[in-house]
Amino acid sequence: MSSLSSLHSDTTPTFQQAPKFLRREEAAAHVRERWGIPCAVAWLAKLATVGGGPLFRKAGRFPIYATSDLDDWAKSRISEPVRSTSELDALRSLKP
C-alpha cells in the first residue's frame, strides 16, 4: 500500500503560483515605491493608449499589470551610471 501512496504523491499535479496582478493605482504605487521613479495613474493610462508603457492585460474593463512587467518596464527607464549629462547623451546616441 505504501507503493500506491507514493505513486499517488508522485503523480499529483503541482500548480505554479499565479502571478500577482495590480490595478492601475496599485501599479503606479509599485513603481514609485519599489523603483523610486515618479509614476502617476494618469501617466499609465496615457501610455496604455499611446504606447511605451508597461505590458498590461484586461480583466473585464479593468487594466491589470503583472509586477514582473512593471519591474521590467521600470528597469528599461533607468540609464547606465554616468558622470555627466554629456555621457548620457552619448549613451543614448549609441542605442538603435
Please give a handful of descriptors for the protein shown.
96 residues; Arc Repressor Mutant, subunit A; 3-stranded antiparallel beta sheet; globular
Q: How would you summarize what this structure contains?
A:
With about 100 residues, this protein is mainly alpha-helical. About 55% of the residues lie in helices and about 10% in strands. α2 crosses α4.
What layout of secondary structure does this protein have?
Elements: H1 2-11, E1 21-23, H2 24-35, H3 41-50, E2 57-59, E3 62-66, H4 67-76, H5 85-94
Antiparallel strand pairs: 1-3, 2-3
Could you characterize what this model shows?
With 96 residues, the chain is mainly α. It has one domain: Arc Repressor Mutant, subunit A (Orthogonal Bundle). 54% of the residues lie in helices and 11% in strands. It is built from five helices and three strands. The chain has helices at 2-11, 24-35, 41-50, 67-76, 85-94, and strands at residues 21-23, 57-59, 62-66. A three-stranded antiparallel sheet has the order 1-3-2. Helix 2 (24-35) crosses helix 4 (67-76).
